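User: Can you write out an input/output pair for a complex, sequences first and structure second?

Assistant: Here is one pair. Inputs:
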Amino acid sequence: MSILSPEQKSIQQAAKEFVAKVIIPNAAKFDKSGEFPMLLLEASKPSNIFAMAVPKEFGGLNYDALTQALVLEEWGYGCAGMGTTLAASVLSMDSVLIAGTDEQKRRYFKPMLNAEIGSFGLTEPGAGSDAAAGTATAVKKGDEYILNGTKCWITNGGFATVYVIFANTDPAAGVKGISAFIVERGLPGFTIGTTDHKLGIRASNTVELLLKDVHVPATNLLGKEGEGMKIAMKTLDMARPAIAALSVGIAQRALDTCVAHVHARFPGKPFPGQTLQFKLADMQILVEAARETLHQAMQLRDAGVPYSKESAICKTFCSDVAMQVSATAVSLMGSYGYTSELGKYMRDSKIMQIYEGTNQIQRLVISRAVLAHAPAAGAAQKAGK
Amino acid sequence: MNFELTEEQQLIGQSARDFGKQYIEPIAVELDHTGEYPKALVQALAKHDFMGLLLPDDVGGAAAGFVSYVEVIEDLSRYCAAVASIVNNHTIAAYVIQQWGTADQKKEYLPSLAKGELLGGVAIYEHGPTPGVGAEALVATKQDVGYVLNGKKAFVRNAGEAGVYVVFAITDPALGAKSLTAFLVKAAAIGVTVGEKLETMGLKGCPVADLTFENVVLAETALLGTVNGGAAIASQALAVASVAEAAQTVGIGQAAVEHAAAYAKQRVQFGKPVATLQAIQTLLAEVATDCHLARLGLRNAALLIEEGKPFEVEAAMVKSFLARLGSKMLIDTCQVEGGFGYSESMPLPRMFRDIAGTNLLDAPGDFPEKLIAASIA
């Protein structure tokens, strides 16, 4: 277990209490209906948790990366759908933190101080893993940009107040023409398309965003023209561990559910054989290793050390762990597993391996890092002999 | 052994695929949404002789061998595994009566089971640690004539729709599971109540519920097999059922990998179909391999069953293999289809939810590995 400061412990404790009081009792209901849990935003107002990533000077809670991960793990434990709502809002903020001016930050973060949410619009139907293939355009006209295009699988899209949207200001330049913009809800021509009904994280809102001649003030450009892809990649580096944190929460919940069921089914009895016991041990090993990997990446980030590879590793490992632990839990608990909330953890886990960069894309990043430098001569010689 | 299916086995498989295409495919999505038992479809299955596959000619069955049977289950599962699950639970009930029933019991139940006029179900599991243990264990108390049943069975498939259940109860709480005894209980018997239909992750349309027995009076003729001879019947029934369940897993996995491969060929990223990427090829290849090996294993077990040879170890191996790799087939094929495939408007999410229900380890402490390990000489 990482050594947490007293402040981190108390924030973690507060998150646990919020999750127990607000998220867990409502998780099944919104998972079933697929509706967006507005009550979550209302209930978050007193704690201001949607401003957890907002720096102090803008009125936010200014949590460091590790502390944010602690909160997100708890939310993932309660409901990865609702956790996704928080994670995706923070994701959009990260772009503004990376590239925004003070004025842009003030404007973008203000809604979060009132438990409103943000949304990050990068993906398009033809541009998923290949984010550079986006075809949305932004044409400068006077002191405005005019945005056109379609974004898909946009988390929080239907309920956000502010958005970071990527569009190309110089299509001839390809990926080097992609730029990032702050777009406010309600601008003429900016509409919400169809809502996706998903296998899991059903409490989170996933929509299409339609941009038709949307006039955005030129002051909403984040960074410079053509810096969009750089901003997006940095944002995803920052945001990926959030998915790892949700994943650790799901895996811990699946394990706890198994343990509770085993206790209920074998009251006062010896627990059945080593097969079951060792499978539970394996789950525990994976959950703890996943959490440590995540915390280590967060400590690197908080120390200001490059952590791009570690970010990819923790996203991949933690989401694979959530998937494996939840699938094992369903199978191991038999019909009980199949008729219980364990199924939800399995459905929710699946997207953790896909969104914010599929685990295949992460492996691409990790393999490049692995192969970037040949090992020291001694090691290579040894391997050759 | 011969790895090729005979012409007859191939034909019966083809007829199941034809049936699936014509009757199941059009309703599979709706069935998944409503979760309502597909009465009309089961009638169509019966009309096409799929409800009496393992039963002999003289009671109106199709007298298909077990290899043909698992072929049908795999093929139906390609379209909807819930339907295959209804058929399997029904067929296993009929199989148990065929194997252990008296002449009178066979005469009473098998013709209507074969015609699909009567649906069968099997009630083995309980909420306690193992059947026969715990406060809610189903107990059969011997009367001067016949038995009285009191207690509860858990997670019964086809519950509420079946007309007859093969029910396992203990006759002596002191002996516990050693006194497990099988009975044939009509759904209409006074004191039998079907609990609320349980919410399942998938296989929707195949109802699952608990059965409660309150002073259910049974005639002597309801006894199936011998008194305290139920454990052997239960383990045999579970072993046979698990081979067909493996065919469900393989049917779903095969349909999913074919869908994912087709998707990968048309989904263009980085300027070319993702099917050209090694990472995607590896995912697809591993699933196809697992499917193929599981199919060989389950056909081998099915052939042993068909030939009346010991099959339990081979069946346990298939179960162990799929408990590890069954759900992974959909975890990996869903990965190929990415964000698109995560939408319930696409077919893989249903298969993801369904496949998880086909490789459950339902008897705690009694894992397939136990039998396998013991068999290694």
